Amino acid sequence: MKVSNKFAIAIAIGTLAAIPSFAASTIDLGINGDAQVGANFINFSSNYPTDTTFAQAPDYGNFQVSQVQAGNILSNAGVHNGEFGLIQSLNNALEPVKSSPDFTNTYTGTPFMTFSDLGSNEQLYLTAILQGNFANGSPFNFTETPNGLVASFDVDGYVLDTNTNAKTLYTGTFSATFNGIMSVSSLDLPQQTPFSATFTLNTVPEPGSVLLMSVGLLGAGVIARRRKVKP
What we know:
By secondary structure, the chain is an alpha+beta fold. It folds into 2 domains: about 45 residues; about 180 residues, no CATH class. It is built from 3 helices and 12 strands, in the order H-E-E-E-E-H-E-E-E-E-E-E-E-E-H. A hairpin with an 8-residue loop joins strand 2 and strand 3. Helix 1 packs antiparallel against helix 3. The longest helix is centred in the C-terminal third of the chain and has 23 residues.
């Protein structure tokens, strides 16, 4: 099958347009708040920092942004230090952890995190909460560190831009350190504590961008081959 140079060049140019959406990036978001952590749930403060009442899943507590990495989709949308937001309490009595590829979760239709100020058009959704190492049916991984016991859970999801309806897929980890609690053996659940958490999101390309990238590389290869065999 013959492929014209013009057609192959057009495909290669399409590849260049796809590269920005293909490249993975990391979003580091720091947040402060109060949490109540059980073996299979995490509830967030209903009105941080003025009280320590907690919203049970699937209702929302709140948090304050302590740090947001510059140059990513959240900071570019205006999410900034000091901004408040809402975060959804999670309860695995209502939602089982991910156990198979056909996993569906009851929180898919509602955002996990929203922001209240300039970045309010960015919403984080969950599509899966992964099994942890603490107990069967629990999302939590507990790690002993010199600074205290760290609780973390792994998630899959997407960032939705409500202005454009664009979705950016991510895999991420939410972690929080419990100061003064040094080991799992001394952990008395449920635990009520202020937290300073990091939410690290590794954004991944949409499948369409991967396809466009592959087709574009094919087009570039055709150009190179035609130039090589040209007398």
